[in-house]
Amino acid sequence: MDFIIKFAEGFMKLFQTGADVFISWMTGIVPVVLLLIVAMNTLIQILGEQRINKLAKASGKNPLLRYMVLPFVGSFMLGNPMALSLGRFLPEKYKPSYYASGAYFCHTSNGLFPHINPGELFIFLGIAAGIEQLGFSTAELAVRYLLVGLVMNFFAGWITDFTTKMVEKQQGIKLKTEVQTLHH
């Protein structure tokens, strides 16, 4: 009988823990993401959607801008997961690759800029603790992580371009190479 009681208590604790996490999201990450969406849309309205589309079109033509500069600026300015929303200004053909590069930037820039992805800062801090115990600089680790990330994240996006082409060919489809706007 004790086993059944312990099992029932543990089962309910599982759901209570889930509810606690859900409430923490509602008072933590959800309002932040919501305000970032509002801020980004406000900025787009102030600057003008045509200007943003021109910038995205220019970025879409150059893989270095598309997979190195745009994701880095997005992650630095907007953080995770909002950095990924900048992909909406790219042509459909480049969205999978932008996502690949942008998602990585939210991790590899975190050592120098913890505001980008505070939920995963514990990974960097765990590695940094080991580096500190060895007597090395954590700042040097963060800079190296960022620099390696710049290069590797670019390649993640660029390589995804090639895999996207393969999937297009396999599926017999052609993704659009022009930015599609809501206002024509």
UniProtKB/TrEMBL annotation:
PANTHER family xrefs: PTS SYSTEM GLUCITOL/SORBITOL-SPECIFIC EIIC COMPONENT, PTS SYSTEM GLUCITOL_SORBITOL-SPECIFIC EIIC COMPONENT
Keywords: Membrane, Transmembrane, Transmembrane helix
NCBIfam families: EII-GUT (TIGR00821)
One GO term describing the cellular component: membrane
Pfam families, alphabetized: EII-GUT
A GO BP annotation: phosphoenolpyruvate-dependent sugar phosphotransferase system
Name this polypeptide is given: PTS glucitol/sorbitol transporter subunit IIC
Gene name tied to this protein: srlA
Keyword Membrane attached: yes
